[in-house]
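Suppose you are handed only these lines of text.
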Amino acid sequence: MSRSAHPAGPRYGDVHTEGHYSPPPADLNTLDDKIWSRTVGRDEDGVATVAGLPVTRLAEEFGTPAYFLDEADFRARCRAWTDAFGKDADVFYAGKAFLSRAVVHWLKEEGLNLDVCSGGELATALDAGMPPERIALHGNNKSVHEIERAVSAGVGRIVLDSFQEMVRVAHIAQSLGRVQPVQIRVTVGVEAHTHEFIATAHEDQKFGIALADGQAAEAVRRALKLDGIELIGIHSHIGSQIFDMAGFEVSARRVVGLLAEIRDEHGVELPEIDLGGGLGIAYTPEDDPREPHDIAKSLTAIVTRECESAGLRTPRISVEPGRAIVGPTAFTLYEVGTIKPLEGLRTYVSVDGGMSDNIRTALYDAEYSVALVSRRSDAEPMLSRVVGKHCESGDIVVRDAFLPADLAPGDLIAVPATGAYCRSMASNYNHALRPPVVAVKDGSARVIVRRETEEDLLRLDVG
Ligand SMILES: *Cc1c(COP(=O)(O)O)cnc(C)c1O
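From them, the structure of the protein bound to pyridoxal-5'-phosphate can be written out as follows.
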């Protein structure tokens, strides 16, 4: 979402014919490497390729719609984050962006840790052999069962989100004869410049414990007294798809301020702070995300400076990128179905998926790009809206984008940067079968999450 360019973009359900689109690129055949994964290109026939594999062949073998995830790119992004932060910090991949057993193996091999926020994500992590001490459990309403499972597995940390939960975790840990390391999630009152539904550090929201009115300090007071938990740090997550580091700066300053208060009141210097995730990626050519190296440098500088001026030892920093790792690594491949030109407005291009495989456009007004990938075309640019096949007029995948005017049913088009929050938010609306995720690497492709079948759907229907 290029929030910077369109701070007050159109909302889901709005009737608007103006559109918020960039001018057509000079050449519609270009696959800008800012928004496409690293190994994407075109072969001499003009067919787009990923990891050396033509998309036409991939469509034949795996069908459409399907997500193709560039494993080399995923691993490279993991390494970029761990290299950038070095050995004095921890990188936790936010599993909610996209999680599967293969992803857990890659994370394990690349030395990352993993955030989970449900029993299902925890089960996937443990099943794929993630060492429990490298797992953090999040969530504003963790069930007793989820907490028991996490504590008995020995997860590295549970991030506490409320007073009630603090007591619950302490009791469960005690009854299991454990001392569970915990962090307290605070809301620092930073409004990240992004869509309201995904900004998570307003005070008026369900996550965390407010810093401003002394609630966070009270939570620390209670946590330090409870047996069964060991308070190891403070956690803050300010939002999603953020480009501007200013929010992190304020957040870090306030969290360090709390660490100083804790030291003054209790004589304890907490060893860790977690600054959350939320770093933006490029969905369109207007988005300019910062490199992990750059982000690491500024975050560490802020924390170090604030700690020095408060006379604190610099705590161990952790960060939790989800989208910034997996988002750019995948694209969704669709087949074009019907094409409906609306005079004076735009052309509606229907694909064989839609809001069931990408809800972000309907949910957040997310902006995406799209390209014709099964062939080259030198036809004129045609203002298009890529829509799905669902029974909702809000079933939009790409609100406004240019496709070549000779687009025809049967062409393949692809939407880049769909690695995060697309498969993980996919639904069975209209009894759609959720698409597979195919990992591609060095000229080979393998299914890591298979396509759903009608048998899968009917198996749950036991009436
Ligand atoms: C969602 C979330 C993240 C990851 O956010 P991204 O925008 O994918 O980087 C990290 N930490 C917490 C606590 C979250 O809720």
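What can we learn from it? DSSP finds twelve helices and 21 strands in the chain. Residues 94, 96-97, 115, 138, 237, 240, 276-279, 320-324, 420 surround pyridoxal-5'-phosphate (CB under 6 Å).
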